[in-house]
Design a protein that fits this description.
α2 (75-82) packs across α9 (315-332) and α10 crosses α14. The strands form nine sheets. Strands 7, 8, 10, 11, 12, 13 and 14 form a seven-stranded mixed beta sheet that branches. By secondary structure, this protein is an alpha/beta fold. It is globular. The chain contains 14 helices and 33 strands. The longest helix is centred in the middle third of the chain and has 18 residues, at 315-332. Helix content is 22%, strand content 27%.
């Protein structure tokens, strides 16, 4: 059962175990936005530090765990990776900060492999805590890391004394990581299904004496019955017999929801504590001694707790990050080019956006050079890009907004935050049309003649809204989406995306196209466009961010004028409400092709636009 959030009262023979968890820190050690060179209040591990120390002090024997994607994601992380050989043995700042905070165990996420296996091993060598990963092995089948660890804890019990409890912590990461980081890993790693691995190893952990078993799953919630080797499986993982609690992550969402504190998955407590250090997950377990020996979970509660800002920042984390923070800032101040118009993503979900136009141009230019002289050079080449920042859970400031003028290295990180490797795939017109349908699932179905209908599906990740530059097409919101937000087919049609043209000619199912996109997109477990039929024809030895830097060197100053790629179909008498950032007011000229008007700001700070369809 789930108990209330009131202070726990323990009966004799019971003990309390508290588990604190972070996930998807992405090397956000400080509350600092490197892309904008501005502070971010109440974010980062430094802001979480005092909260973690207070929550741990409340309950003796508390465990502090991390759920992966820790070593990559900020320019500070890039600086560390690119200059590792010159560090003179200095530890990775994220690992040093975690060790200083007293983490008890951690697992890895997919992005922790982005810099290659040698770097990863060197970084982890400085960890003052075990790092576990159960479903990854080297090419010969030897586990990369211990699959799990057993931690003995002395807890307070209801009789005023102490109770010894053994906690097993097991870690998992998406098996797709092997494809996403394929170039960096160079065939040196293989991965197994998360669920199959859990079913095999959790009983072994119990046999090894674990009273409580906690899964660190760098995976999103997913479906109750996911496909084999699925990327997001936590709902199904929670149902594996023998698990007592699950930490989720990867999808940068939050669980339990704010309006459903204490919600469970398959009857056990679970937390996904947001991302970038915005909150810490807290699971409290009430343990009851079994008559046959050992312990069982008698009650539980789960919640997310965010720092208030009033507790300041943790001095140990600040010290761990100081050297590399300063070096990263200097690196980001270098001028990489110039733009003669502002680059932003405020209207990226409503029309073509200048920032996306630039990214598409940079990718396409790199692909054209890479394909020159090959047999693929004559095929139509499209460029697929999606907004890295378009509001959503990131809040009203989570938009690209770069002024006209010099472009610094920090702006490249804002435009392409993760530096994914580029690939060109060959696919059919039918697969291309399906890809567009998957992206169009971002929008709700709207009714003609109805005013102020919400435009966006609230849980659809905007970074999956791919726009295929080189085409023109229309999205008819009166038609239901052919896919739900998880990518599952919802029905036979009619298609929501129509009037799809290339070079003025309708796209036919049998047509051949090339699309330049990221390896992360082509390697997804639920990729768009029938990716089983995709053929990779160019596997670039550069990232999307590299391509942008090269494009700026060749073309600067750039002026990525919006050229309409797609539009909404007319919907007589209907209006829709769409959120954007308040800073969009300065760029309304870029919404000139839309019939939009402000309706004010929402309670959570977004500027709401009324779009007349």
């Amino acid at each position: 059962m789930t108990i209330s959030f009131a202070p726990l009262t323990l009966a004799p023979g019971m003990a309390q175990l508290r588990i604190l968890a972070t996930t998807d820190l992405h090397c956000t050690l400080l509350g600092h936005d490197y892309a904008r060179n501005a502070p971010v209040p109440r974010a980062g591990l430094a802001a979480l530090g005092p909260l973690i120390r207070r929550l741990r002090a409340e309950v003796p024997g508390t465990l502090l765990l991390d759920n992966g994607d820790t070593l990559q994601g900020t320019p500070l992380a890039d600086h560390v990776a690119e200059n590792w050989a010159e560090r003179g043995g200095a530890p990775h700042p994220a690992i040093a900060a975690m060790t200083a905070l007293g983490y008890d165990a951690a697992t890895l996420g997919n992005h922790d492999f982005d810099y290659g296996l040698a770097f990863l091993r060197n970084a982890l060598a400085g960890a003052g805590f075990p790092v576990v990963l159960a479903n990854f092995a080297d090419a010969g089948g030897t586990p990369l890391l211990p699959p799990y660890t057993l931690i003995d804890r002395e807890l307070r019990n209801g009789g005023g004394g102490r109770a010894r409890v053994r906690v097993g912590v097991i870690g998992f990461a998406p098996p797709q990581t092997v494809r996403w980081s394929g170039r960096a890993l160079a065939g040196a790693v293989r991965a197994a299904c998360i669920l199959d691995t859990a079913r095999r190893l959790v009983p072994r952990m119990r046999a090894d004496g674990a009273d409580v078993v906690v899964a660190l799953a760098h995976s999103g919630l997913g479906e109750r019955r996911p496909a084999p080797r699925a990327e997001n499986v936590v709902r199904a993982l929670a149902a594996v017999p023998g698990l007592d609690a699950v930490i989720a992550g990867h999808s940068h969402a939050a669980f339990p929801p704010d309006d459903t504190p204490g919600a469970t998955l398959a009857g056990i407590p679970a937390v996904m504590p947001d991302f970038l250090g915005k909150s810490v997950g807290v699971i409290d377990l009430v343990l009851e001694r079994r008559s046959t020996g050992g312990w069982r979970v008698a009650a539980h509660r789960a919640r997310r707790v965010a720092p208030t800002g009033g507790e300041g920042e943790d001095a140990a984390v600040l010290r761990a990050a100081a050297r590399d923070h300063g070096a990263a800032q200097a690196r980001l101040a270098v001028v990489a080019g110039a733009t003669s118009r502002p680059l932003h993503s405020h209207f990226a979900l409503l029309t073509d956006a200048p920032a996306l136009r630039l990214l598409a141009e940079a990718q396409r230019a790199a692909a054209e050079r890479g394909l020159a002289g090959t047999r693929w050079a004559g095929l139509p080449l499209l460029s697929a890009v999606a907004p890295s920042k378009a509001g959503g859970p990131g809040g009203p400031g989570h938009f690209v907004d770069i002024a006209a003028g010099p472009l610094h290295a920090r702006h490249l990180s804002e435009l392409f935050p993760f530096g994914n490797a580029l690939q060109v795939v060959r696919l059919s017109g039918a697969a291309l049309l399906d890809w567009l349908e998957r992206a169009a699932a971002l929008y709700r179905t709207l009714r003609p003649g109805v005013a102020d209908q919400p435009l966006l599906q609230p849980d659809f990740p905007t970074h999956r809204f791919d726009v295929l530059h080189g085409l023109s097409y229309r999205i008819d919101l009166s038609r239901p989406a052919l896919y739900d937000i998880s990518g599952r087919p919802t029905g036979p049609g009619p298609c929501r995306v129509d009037a799809v043209r290339h070079a003025g000619r309708p796209v036919r199912p049998a047509d051949d196209f090339l699309v330049v996109t990221s390896a992360h997109r082509t390697g997804a477990s639920d990729p768009p466009g029938g990716a089983a039929d995709w053929e990779v024809v160019w596997d670039a030895d550069l990232t999307d961010r590299d391509a942008l830097a090269d494009h700026l060197l060749r073309e600067s100053p750039v002026r990525p004028d919006p050229i309409p790629v797609w539009r909404f179909a007319r919907l007589p008498g209907a209006t829709a409400l769409a959120p954007t950032g308040p800073a969009a007011r300065a760029h309304l000229v870029d919404a000139a092709g839309l019939d939009v008007a402000e309706t004010g700001e929402t309670a959570d700070g977004f500027l709401q636009l009324r779009l007349r369809l």
